[in-house]
Amino acid sequence: MRFIDFHTHHASMAGETVIRQHEQSWGIHPKDAATAQWQPRPEGCMAIGECGLDHLCGVPARVQEELFRRHVSLSEEAGLPLIVHCVRAHEEILGLHRRLRPRQPWMVHGFRGKPSVMSRLLDEGMYISFGLLFNEESVRACPAERLLTETDDRPVAVDKVYAAIAAARGTTVAELAACMERNFACLYGNRGI
Ligand SMILES: [Zn+2]
């Protein structure tokens, strides 16, 4: 059984498959929107992001939105899914998704919100990625085919995240792992790593 980390800033450990920031995914975090340079994505890049909107990071909303739209365009042109960082900006993300109608899947990473917010993201067709800290009700309510697991920048192995999510959902780690394999295949097809 392998453990899949759909968004991390760490290298993989034994038995893990990871989408690591700046290796398998490329994007500019909204906190760096005013300063970071747009760069060609790395070879073997499988996803665009993390990118998004963060109303707590102090960068003007207009600057963040312009950069986020650029990532959405790249995701569509390259045919790669988008890892979305969203802090207190769910309305804007939902609005942009509705207006831009992307064909590529959007994954809202590090989701800690309530089920009422999650259900609106799900209605737009988005995936929800959970780390070690999550709203239990949301983890329980998330449909298995839209749920993802991640460690982000936390110093934790992804199997701990699997254990916490499986416990919250009343399922086994093995069942969750099978489900993450299916979701990985849906998102990344045979681009596999
Ligand atoms: Zn991150």
Taken together, the total number of domains comes to 1
How many E-type strands?
A: 8
Largest sheet: 6 strands, parallel
> Alpha-carbon distance between the termini?
15 Å
Radius of gyration: 16 Å
User: H/E order of the elements?
Assistant: EEEEHEHEHEHEHH
Helix content bin: 25-40%
Which cofactors or ions or other ligands sit in this model? Answer: zinc ion
Shape: globular
Q: Report the structural category.
A: alpha/beta
For the biggest β-sheet, the strand order reads 3-4-5-6-7-8
CATH superfamily heading: Metal-dependent hydrolases
How many distinct helices? 6
What are the SSEs and their pairings?
Blueprint: E1 3-8, E2 16-20, E3 25-26, E4 47-54, H1 61-78, E5 82-87, H2 90-100, E6 106-108, H3 115-123, E7 127-130, H4 136-141, E8 147-149, H5 158-169, H6 173-188
Parallel strand pairs: 1-2, 3-4, 4-5, 5-6, 6-7, 7-8
Describe, in short, the structure shown.
With 193 residues, this protein is α/β, with parallel strands linked by helices. The protein has helices spanning 61-78, 90-100, 115-123, 136-141, 158-169, 173-188, and strands spanning 3-8, 16-20, 25-26, 47-54, 82-87, 106-108, 127-130, 147-149.
